[in-house]
Design goal:
Distance between the termini: 39 Å
Strand order of the largest sheet: 6-7-12-8-11-10
Shape: globular
Structural class: alpha+beta
Length: 432
């Protein structure tokens, strides 16, 4: 488990901007990318933090793994009974509401709370006049939350650190709601309450009356959030996994006739600025036709995958979610272990793999077959390099009763990705 959270998001000079695409009800948000060097540095810090915690507790890694295994087995034996019937447990990728949902133990907590795995950030404004916040546009969750004025464990606005905090007393469009907001992450809870507000993206494109969370205590995200440069999360998944079932930002964009089409699209620049387009696509950013695949269900952006292969490694039919909030690719630990063996990558205690930087040319291409179409990520793009450290960009993670793989930013950088909210499908086309 990531001890105390190693969310060391030491982002430098975000310089976030927004612009409106010319056209009817189509607009974009510019996304700023964190460098690979910073990402690798962050992962190494996570490993150091975990090792320090183990030494402090005078526990060997093997002991920790055994205790976590026993905990997972205990959780798997628990059955929730409600009104004389078996209750269905929703597995929220980012966290659980009120702590009453099985969080999936050690492995799922990486996806749940490690927003250091997010490499792209953009801007939204809340209230009248607008108060601006840097957020992760996250297709793996559904709520919008930002810290409120006076938030505990949210840092202080000094030396360029800390958070921009929402102050509803300064907004004429604020409406009280007061319902509890609570999401349980691997290292603890994030608490707050819902309010209604005007939410603006791209300068003047707004929705009114959106239920969002004012976070009063972000202690569950640990010191990494305090030191990080993002303020909150804008969820872009479906309302079926929204806390309290609140309508999502996309729901309101459609209900209030803001969008030209019920879609949004990501272009993740590699060494350039990225772009998130609402209501359409940017044809200048991709080549060929967009190929679509239907979702398994309208929860996450989860799809069937025909197969995954690299070198001598191959895996047959599986499932995956397309997740803008995860920088790496992730897969079942046993499968990623086999895949890592193919490229000579060695595991560390955090479930990540590093490799010899002299052997980058030996890394085979990864192919992901979706709905009969083959998508390739080159071997070179499967490695993040900083100085003399090379991080294998595929991480082992088991998600009980959830998707087997996560196609994060490593995949999305190579393929323009269209999230068709209206038709519940996702499409891909190679970026130019």
């Amino acid at each position: 488990m990531l001890s105390g959270l190693a969310l060391s998001l030491a982002l430098s000079s975000l310089a976030i901007t927004t612009n409106v695409v010319e056209g009817n009800n189509v607009f974009t948000v510019s996304l700023t990318k964190r460098s690979d060097e910073e990402m690798v540095s962050n992962f190494l810090q996570m490993e150091r933090d975990a090792l320090a915690a183990m030494l402090e507790a005078k526990m060997e890694p093997a002991v920790v793994e055994e205790e976590e295994k026993q905990s997972e087995e205990k959780q798997s034996e628990e059955i929730v009974v409600q009104d004389g019937a078996y209750a269905t447990q929703r597995h929220l990728l980012r966290g659980s509401e009120n702590g009453d949902i099985n969080e999936g133990g050690k492995d799922e907590t990486v996806a749940i709370h490690d927003f250091s795995n997010a490499q792209y950030y953009g801007s939204v404004s809340i209230g009248t006049p607008p108060q601006s916040f840097k957020v992760i546009f996250d297709t793996g969750s559904s709520n919008l939350w930002v810290p409120k004025e006076g938030c505990s464990h949210c840092g202080y606005k000094i030396f360029g650190l800390g958070k921009d905090k929402y102050d509803h007393s300064k907004s004429s469009s604020y409406k009280e709601n007061g319902e509890e907001f609570k999401i349980v992450y691997g290292s603890g809870a994030v608490n707050g309450f819902f309010s209604k507000e005007t939410v603006t993206v791209s300068d003047d494109v707004s929705v009114t009356g959106m239920d969002f969370a004012e976070v009063t205590d972000a202690g569950g995200l640990g010191i990494g959030y305090v030191m990080g440069r993002f303020d909150g999360i804008m969820g872009l998944a479906f309302s079926s996994i929204s806390i309290k079932g609140k309508p999502t930002f996309m729901d309101l964009l459609l209900e209030q006739n803001v969008l030209k089409e019920p879609i949004f699209s990501f272009y993740l620049g590699d060494n350039t600025e990225g772009e998130l387009t609402f209501g359409g696509v940017d044809e200048e950013k991709y080549e060929g036709e967009i190929e679509y695949v239907d979702l398994i269900s309208s929860t996450y952006w989860e799809i069937d995958v025909d197969g995954i292969s690299a070198g001598d490694y191959s895996m047959g039919k599986t499932t995956a979610i397309v997740d803008s909030g995860t920088s790496l690719l992730t897969g079942p630990k046993k499968e990623v272990s086999k895949l890592a063996l193919q490229v000579g990558a060695k595991p560390n205690m955090m479930g990540q793999y590093t490799m010899d930087c002299e052997k980058l040319g030996d890394v085979p291409d990864l192919t992901v077959t979706i709905n009969g179409s083959v998508y390739t990520v080159s071997g070179r793009d499967l490695v993040m390099k900083a100085a003399n450290t090379c991080l294998f960009a595929i991480m082992g993670m088991d998600i009980p009763e959830g998707p087997q793989w996560i196609l994060g930013d490593v995949f999305m950088r190579k393929y323009y990705t269209v999230f068709d909210y209206g038709n519940e499908r996702v499409g891909f086309a190679r970026v130019k």
